Amino acid sequence: MTMQPSDEQPSLPATTSIHDTRRADPEKSTSQTPYMSTTTSSAIDIECVPVVNDPRQWSSLRKVNLSLSLISAASLIAGLANNVQNPAVQDMEADLPATSAQFSLSLSIFILIQGLMPLVWSAISEVKGRKPVYLISLALFTLGSIVVALSKSIGVVITFRALQAVGSSAVISIGAATLADIFEPAERGTKMGVYYMAPPLGTAIGPIFGGVLTAGFNWRAIFWFLSIVSGNSFLVFFLFFQDTFRRERSLTYQNAMRQRMRISSTGEKKKTTIQEKSFKKESDVQAVPEIFPIAKLSLMDVNPFKPILLVVSRVNNFVILMASSLTYAFGFLVAYTSARSLSMRYHYGPMKIGLVTLAYGLGCLAGSVLGGRWSDRSLSLLKAANGGKSSPEMRLKSTYLGVLFLPPSILALGWLYQKKVHVSAICVFLFACGFFSIWTYTSTIAYIVDANNGRSSTAVATNSAFRGVMAFITTEVAVPLQDGVGDGWMYTIWALLMLSGGMLILLVSWKGGRWREQGQAREVENSKNAEANTLGVRHFLK
């Protein structure tokens, strides 16, 4: 049998398996090939393929204090960019000039592009690595911020806010994939919690920064501030961040190599087969002779849509993506509509609005850290109870607390706004909504990564697309819905939506394992059929 790289996990004979990276000797591995040995296994776990300079073998100082800190800081900037300009809307309308509808359009376009662009960034990162994507995206964000700060018309603002969205979208999408590169599944929940507390925290404190900068200087100071912060982030990434991408562990990269193999010479193909047959006679652990021809891939070698279709075609992925996108969209809704309610019903200014909505950000912060730790603890306990065996679906059982308490918290918040109850009660339930929503969201993101070994970047990018579209729709209908039915019934509708999303998460925790295995089997079968067809064509041409 000739082992082929593919976007699906390829099957192996029952006599072979991949050694776990933690037991492999990194000095003996090559940058192209994994170790194999005569133990029983039916498929390659691509995450366990040994690699040179394995990021998972890095020191805790390097992984946590440097890599995780850099990525989280960059995602905080992306969160700030979402609504930092909100307190300056009136000043910008007067200065540019512009209308409220035009500003609403700029926000919707920003959210949509920030959701869709990760599909492109993900494909690039699977060929060129993570670091170039971080550097290019931060440079684009910095450029967009500078031009907005200098702009004289709303058209320029909308255009270069869109460029800001292009730049900020990369760190949100491939940040989770980077964490998957360097952390084992058992500790990802905690690290994802730390990472995902940054964007909502940035969204929460953005209005405070915007209010202070506008009051102290003018609205342009907001975007000069963003350009300085993102420029510094670019410099730090350039100097200190080491790429975590390893092509041996990327199904997207392996699929591109498969395409190269299909057009390679027959002699090269025979050489591979002879090498593999020779290897199968050995019983001891050893380095496999080079199987794949060395080739530099370009963006033309990677089709960004096929991996996305493979992700969405798995029922468990599609269902969890819908639930995740609802949770994310709610975060935009509560921040946007709360600002309007506090302004219209409580007659608060920008600074007071920012301080009140900070309660939501603090809830997100607490829910992200504690939810991530609880996710890892739950997975560890369930794994121990299951004889040391785990599955991605076990992680979703940690979401039960958020699934149970988020809908009633949303319901209470809406009617508190409607009845104009004291703002202290508003702060309590804003905190609760942030806490329970991120408690759930952190585990769903960790599940998306765990359930898509070898294509975590594509899976997270697909999640970004789902949530971007959902947030775009939510933002567009938020104002008409709020004005039409009021805060009480608007939040009641969203409580029902989040209850439905919670039911979807519970459904995946129950049936997701079967769906995932069926999807994997279907992909392997399709891979074998495609290879058989290719060999048939070659034989016919000979």
TrEMBL record:
Keyword Membrane on entry: yes
Record field: compositional bias (Basic and acidic residues): 19-28
Coiled-coil positions: none
TM spans (from-to): 64-81, 101-121, 133-150, 162-182, 194-215, 221-241, 318-339, 351-371, 423-448, 491-510
InterPro entries noted in UniProt: MFS, MFS_dom, MFS_trans_sf
Keyword Transmembrane helix: yes
Name the UniProt record assigns to this protein: Major facilitator superfamily (MFS) profile domain-containing protein
Source organism (scientific name): Laccaria amethystina LaAM-08-1
Organismal lineage: Eukaryota, Fungi, Dikarya, Basidiomycota, Agaricomycotina
